[in-house]
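so my prof wants the structure for this chain in the tokens format not the other one, which i didnt know existed until like an hour ago. anyway here's the sequence
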Amino acid sequence: MIPGLLLPMLFLAKRIRTIPALTVWAALVLSVAPATAQVTWRMTTEYPQNNISGIGLTTFASRVSERTHGFVIVANAFDNELKISSSEMPRAALDGRIAGGDAFAGALSGIDPVLGLSTLPFLVQSVDVARAGNVRARPLYERALQARGLKLLYLTIWPATGLWSDHALEGADDLPKLNLRAYDTNSSEVMRAAGANAQFLPMDAALAGLREHRLNAFLTSGDGGAGRKLWDFLPYFTAINYAMPVSIAFIRSDAFAELSEPMQREVLAAAAETEQSQYALLAHRNSENYTRMRDNGVRIAEPAPASLVAALRKAATNAIAAWETQAGAEATAIVEWARQQ
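here's what i got, hopefully its the right format
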């Protein structure tokens, strides 16, 4: 060997031996060091953080952060902090004001009638039927959102809807005495057909109407009412089991598409875990809400007066038939399945 080449070759050999060690060291550092957030999704809900919708967004944000090691951060706004109601969320997402949100599904029925499926009256009377029905409906929800540039992440099933009021409801004769906030177009039509003065209002507008004594009743679940402390104005709750509606968490499709495929898989896994967690929460949510309501002086009528429920069921017939003509054969098949359960 030429003596003048010996020293450079020895140096090169040492460098080559060092490279694997450096590679191992770098991999170790990357595996334990927290990743810098590269993507932030602003998401919103009309409801408080302790409401079932708010709990879902909190869970989703936590799962996404864990699964992506901080690469995707979900920044949540609760209690309509951004002044974006459920019906406005799709447009707000497409306009770039938010990346997505958790919207009450009935309020989205103006986008596509199928999104109002879960709020149809008296079709679902148990958690198991609600879950099985939403498994059937999910592809329809996904398709409706996808056609508008949105991607469904997870569903939240709400506890059964009842009537909050400022006085006890004894029967059907009490319905005309109600100035009532309904939660979507279908429910407002049903309540009006039964004799109530009902209108579909976003939550903020409804609460303003309550404070100003223009409203004396709300159609919502114990969860929705407890989260808003409706007992301050409406200390009676009649468990009519009107529906078990869902809220839909979604993200703008192009925001999701900007992620790498591995990150997309982690986000979808976080969404699936959130949906399962929300379903597990539902198992005890109703009894927890009732305990909280009674602790705050709410008088709960369960079962509801038979004549009241009969009047509402009769009033629901035309609304369901009208919805079926708009929603299409696949959605109608799910309604027929629910009727047979």
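also thought this was worth mentioning. The chain has two domains: 39-158+244-290, 161-243+296-339.
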